[in-house]
Amino acid sequence: MNGEPLRIGTRSSPLALWQAHWVAEELKRSGQPVEVVHVSTKGDVTSGPLGEIGGQGLFTKEIQAALLENRVDIAVHSLKDLPTDPTPGLALAAVPTREACGDVLVSRGGFHVDTLPQGAIVGTGSVRRRAQLLHARPDLDIRDIRGNVETRLRKMDEGEYEAIVLAEAGLRRLEMADRIIHVIDKRVMLPAVGQGALGIEVRDSDHRAKAAVGVLHHPDSYHCVQAERVLLAELRGGCLAPVGAWARLELERDLLHLDGVVISGDGVQKISAYACGPPTKAAEIGRQVASQLIIQGAQRIISYARTSGGRG
Ligand SMILES: NCc1[nH]cc(CCC(=O)O)c1CC(=O)O
């Protein structure tokens, strides 16, 4: 009914493939023919600490290039990997229903952040996770870890780390929910901006693709990630900054609540802010929380952290 199949571009990691195939199935169900096209990215092929390899957009740039060069028609991103600066020629056309957005502590011993042994080695490549863990537990020995979700779990199982931190959403999508023993309390760790959500991008001029992916758009999820992304953009943070944010809706009162945090890399300085308002004012709520953080000195912490880097 809708002509040529739309080409969905994806990275080749198991999580990226799961996400692309999920979008493919949903679009097929709506009557839209699609095909999935693999695009390799530097984020997948390079090893070594992320802070040294490259900046934000590591996982998304090459899919975006494929989109702009007409090699694919639809890009499926983990929204937390997608920079907040708009890309000329592209449009974020749909944000589907968000999966659980929290961070999980995975360990062989079933530990909580509070019960990890003194000085335990915890693996994470993310400055946001590192800083929040150190804030709660300055004694922990936080070490870098790379690779996709499966690789990280294997490294922990083999004993290289006592525990690792992963996104709850990734574990659920990969049917590894049995690994979720402890979802870290949001008072201890706020998620990355956009964590748990997908972002579906198309060429701004491609009205057929825009209309097709529209069936996947979930306005409630969109309002939440919009508040978080405006917060990050206002801080000029990027996905490598030690920034956490958590927006959620309280449907009974039609309110969007937004918490934001900026933490120094060593976990010593932590500044927090909160605002709420109607979901249709999501961007304004994001700006409010950002300005409260800036008043408390967010900019200094972020520019200092930029020299060390780290994602997630
Ligand atoms: N940093 C890579 C990345 N990008 C998105 C997810 C998980 C899925 C999501 O947040 O939507 C992950 C893995 C992780 O952080 O554990």
UniProtKB/TrEMBL annotation:
<dbReference type="InterPro" id="IPR036803">
    <property type="entry name" value="Porphobilinogen_deaminase_C_sf"/>
</dbReference>
<feature type="domain" description="Porphobilinogen deaminase N-terminal">
    <location>
        <begin position="6"/>
        <end position="210"/>
    </location>
</feature>
<dbReference type="InterPro" id="IPR022418">
    <property type="entry name" value="Porphobilinogen_deaminase_C"/>
</dbReference>
<dbReference type="Pfam" id="PF03900">
    <property type="entry name" value="Porphobil_deamC"/>
</dbReference>
<dbReference type="InterPro" id="IPR022417">
    <property type="entry name" value="Porphobilin_deaminase_N"/>
</dbReference>
<feature type="domain" description="Porphobilinogen deaminase C-terminal">
    <location>
        <begin position="223"/>
        <end position="293"/>
    </location>
</feature>
<dbReference type="InterPro" id="IPR000860">
    <property type="entry name" value="HemC"/>
</dbReference>
<keyword id="KW-0808">Transferase</keyword>
<keyword id="KW-0627">Porphyrin biosynthesis</keyword>
<dbReference type="GO" id="GO:0005737">
    <property type="term" value="C:cytoplasm"/>
</dbReference>
<dbReference type="GO" id="GO:0004418">
    <property type="term" value="F:hydroxymethylbilane synthase activity"/>
</dbReference>
<comment type="similarity">
    <text>Belongs to the HMBS family.</text>
</comment>
<dbReference type="GO" id="GO:0006782">
    <property type="term" value="P:protoporphyrinogen IX biosynthetic process"/>
</dbReference>
<comment type="subunit">
    <text>Monomer.</text>
</comment>
<protein>
    <recommendedName>
        <fullName>Porphobilinogen deaminase</fullName>
        <ecNumber>2.5.1.61</ecNumber>
    </recommendedName>
</protein>
<comment type="function">
    <text>Tetrapolymerization of the monopyrrole PBG into the hydroxymethylbilane pre-uroporphyrinogen in several discrete steps.</text>
</comment>
<comment type="pathway">
    <text>Porphyrin-containing compound metabolism; protoporphyrin-IX biosynthesis; coproporphyrinogen-III from 5-aminolevulinate: step 2/4.</text>
</comment>
<feature type="modified residue" description="S-(dipyrrolylmethanemethyl)cysteine">
    <location>
        <position position="239"/>
    </location>
</feature>
<dbReference type="Pfam" id="PF01379">
    <property type="entry name" value="Porphobil_deam"/>
</dbReference>
<dbReference type="InterPro" id="IPR022419">
    <property type="entry name" value="Porphobilin_deaminase_cofac_BS"/>
</dbReference>
